[in-house]
Amino acid sequence: MAISKNGTILIPYVNNELVAVNESSVAYDMDKLDYITQINILRSTDDGNTFKKLTLDKEGCQCCDTATTPGPDGEIYFSWRDSKRTNALLSDYSDKYISNQSDSEYVDKTALQQGLIEVPIYSTTRDIVVSHTLDNGSGLKYSEPVKVQKLE
Fold first, then answer.
1. Which of 64-68, 73-77, 85-89, 99-103 has the lowest mean pLDDT?
2. What Cα–Cα distance (Å) separates residue 58 from each residue in 21, 81, 102?
3. How would you class 58 by CB atoms within 10 Å of its CB: exposed for 0-12, middle for 13-18, buried for 19 or more?
4. Cα–Cα separations (whole angstroms), residue 8 to 3, 52, 87, 132
5. Domain ranges for the chain
6. DSSP class of residue 60?
7. pTM metric for this prediction
8. Quick one: CA torsion of 80, 85, 89, 93, rounded to 10 degrees?
9. Closest by Cα among 77, 76, 85, 79 to 122
10. How far apart are the C-alpha atoms of 149 and 109, rounded to whole Å?
């Protein structure tokens, strides 16, 4: 949580929601069904009496928390782990090894290998990113998220 110099309260949080395929209904086609994590911010300008939800990132990491700090320039800075699927590839169905876990703890691997079920498993790129307010901490305008480190 951060409180800007003008008194705006900004509370970032991780929110897991089921994505509606066409924005009005949930599909049960496993190729289209997906869980997504949003990085949201609750914003209050009336000392916390009411809050409005804003979304910073529609593809955040579902298991990592956010960090917030006011900057010396009056802006509020946010950091989180991103989980973009821009360059994601559908995993090979024939390779379902999950490290240090027995097959019995998951969907029966034999059924998967026999083609009785198919489970889309995606690889994602996860980076730590930073974004900040662009309006002296008012929380209505934000910079684009920037990766903390770029690997070459």
1. 99-103
2. 14, 12, 33
3. middle
4. 6, 11, 37, 14
5. 2-84+126-146, 89-123
6. B
7. 0.65
8. 70
9. 85
10. 37
Cα-trace Rg, the chain: 19
Instruction: Indicate the residue type of 103.
Output: D
The alpha carbon of residue 50 and the mean position of all alpha carbons in its chain are separated, in whole angstroms, by 24
**81 burial type by CB count under 10 A (0-12 exposed, 13-18 middle, 19+ buried):** buried
Token readout for 143 is: 């910079």
Give buried/exposed letters for 12-24 (b at 16+ CB in 10 A, else e): bebeeeeeeeeee
Nearest to 14 by CA among 42, 44, 34: 42
Whether 37 has a pLDDT exceeding 60, the answer reads yes
CB 18 within 8 A of CB 26: yes
CB 57 within 8 A of CB 79: no
130 CB burial (10 A radius; 0-12, 13-18, 19+):
middle
